[in-house]
Amino acid sequence: MAYKFQFRDVFAQQDAIADGLVLTLQLSATVIALGFVIGTLVAAVLVYAKPWARGLAHAYVEVIRNTPLIVQLFLIFFGLPGIGIRFDVVTASVLALTINLAAYTAEIVRAGLESIPKSQIEAGVSLGLTGPQVFRHVVLLPALKNVYPSLTSQFVLMMLATSVVSQISAVELFHAGSIIQSRTFRDFEVYTVIAVLYLGLSLVMRAGFSVCYRIFFRRS
Amino acid sequence: MIREVAWQDVMYLVFAIRWTLLLTLLALSGGSLVGLLVAAGGASGSLVLRNLARAYVGLVQGIPLLAWLFIFYFGLSIVGFNVPPWVAATVGFSIYAGAFLGEIWRGALISIPRTQWEAGLAIGLTYLEQLRHVIIPQAVRVAIPPTVGFIVQLIKNTSLASVIGFVELTREGQLTTAATFQPFTVYLLVAALYFALCYPLTRYSRTLERKRRVVH
Questions:
Q1: DSSP result, B70-131
Q2: Which of A60, A64, A70 should be substituted to probe chain B, the one whose Cβ sees the most B Cβ atoms within 10 Å?
Q3: CB–CB of B160/A61 below 8 Å?
Q4: Dihedral of alpha carbons B116, B48, A156, A137, sign
């Protein structure tokens, strides 16, 4: 085989890689935090709200879950300016990813909320807990505990999915790859390095989430 | 030249669905082969095979699909093949689908209680007969709803093949946008077409799941 692998040119571009890595981390952290909060609210609407609100929330979740992320992103970044709404690249990225993640989170947390038997809630009430106390200690925390594995894998998948915003030229890790590729023409090497970095990130995230599990749900 | 979104543009988009579906089918076939191996390994008695299957799934699910597509697009040409985008996409998506299908099917296999195997053994079935007549018929019923659910994921994810130049629904949308300069209308239409493909499958998967729960 005539091909010689040359990683040196790629590693020489470590600044571009580091910049990309930082934006990927920032995007992931922001989107996961926002998506989790909004998704949990939507889940509460799906389970407890009036029928019309439930219908709206349901429509949102279904529309997002049945269309591709990249099309949602294009619609927000390229489409919305057509009707006068303009975002910069990073805002559009955060918006599209958050809207996407919140829908998946809502569906997962809904399953968790529905897994809490009614008798548990009644037990909480009979102990003299107030409404918000019951929701927090008897419903939400056990619900999140039940769906913790699927919720956190969804978060890891979202970190990986941030790579899609490279297609609207947000300079995150994957886009850093394209930039280095155009500088060095070492396409295979570049994307291998990028892939290994993503793999490292997802391993770190999974480890982090299992530590979090022990911290948050130790006593329950 | 910039022009309005005309009826022919809409029809081009509608007909681009066949490439999305074709890629989904190719990925599903390749992914099923890989997935069967992963599931068989992951549910087997051998620790080595189980760890191999787990490592494969962890590797594939720990790297963005976009990166897999680029790696195969550029990687296969290094090995000396001049790869057209559809080959790179098929290989990339098969590898990717294999990990997810493998996990789903492994779960289905190990959800069948040990006693079912033992019952098969007790009436004198060989290992393969146990699999064929006792385990697989039950495992399939567990596996079908999530498999249909994954096909929805696959249809949506084929949109990423647009970035290596495979012309499917999303890429056709980009091309139409370039000609008409009406991204809002075009991408809304593209999204609606994906929804029309995926939503019935999502509903179907949910119905199957509900039926299964009633049976049990």
A1: HHHHHHHHHTT----HHHHHHHHHHHHHHHHHHHHHHHHHHTS-HHHHHHHHHTT--HHHII
A2: A70
A3: no
A4: positive
Pairwise CB contact (< 8 Å): A70 & B63? no
| pLDDT for residue B89 | 92
Among positive and negative, which fits the CA dihedral B34, B37, B42, B47? negative
Domain range A8-216, CATH architecture: Orthogonal Bundle (1.10)
Q: Are B187 and A62 a contacting pair at CB < 8 A?
A: no
In total, how many domains does chain B have?
1
In a domain, B1, yes or no: no
- Is the Cβ of A119 closer than 8 Å to some Cβ of chain B? no
Domain hosting B65: range is 7-215
* Amino acid in position B122: A
Rounded to whole angstroms, how far apart are CA atoms A160 and A97? 11
Q: In this predicted model, what pLDDT tens digit does every residue of A115-140 receive, in sequence order?
A: 999 999 999 999 999 988 998 889 99
B40 is a domain residue: yes
Of residues A122, A129, A151, the one with CA closest to residue A216: A151
Tokens 């009036």 sit on residue: A50
Average pLDDT, chain A: 92
> B33 vs chain A: nearest CA distance in angstroms?
24
A3–B78 C-beta distance less than 8 A: yes
The per-residue pLDDT for range B153-194, each reduced to its tens digit, is 999 999 999 998 899 999 999 999 988 889 999 999 999 999
Domain boundaries, chain A: 8-216
| ipTM of the complex, rounded to two decimals | 0.89
Alpha carbons B25 and B154: distance in angstroms, whole number:
9
**pTM value > 0.95:** no
Tell me, what CATH number does B31's domain have?
1.10.3720.10
Q: Is B96 part of a structural domain of the chain?
A: yes
* Of B62, B78, B185, Cβ closest to residue A203: B62
Length of chain A: 220
CB contact under 8 A, B170 and A70: yes
pLDDT band, very low/low/confident/very high, at B2 (cuts 50, 70, 90): low
d(CA A15, CA A176) in angstroms, rounded, equals 9
Q: Report residue A198 as tokens.
A: 């993503």
Distance CA(B70)–CA(B96), nearest Å, equals 13
Cα dist. A80→A31, A70, A73, A75, B140 in Å? 20, 14, 10, 6, 44
Is the CB of B170 less than 8 angstroms away from the CB of A174? Answer: no
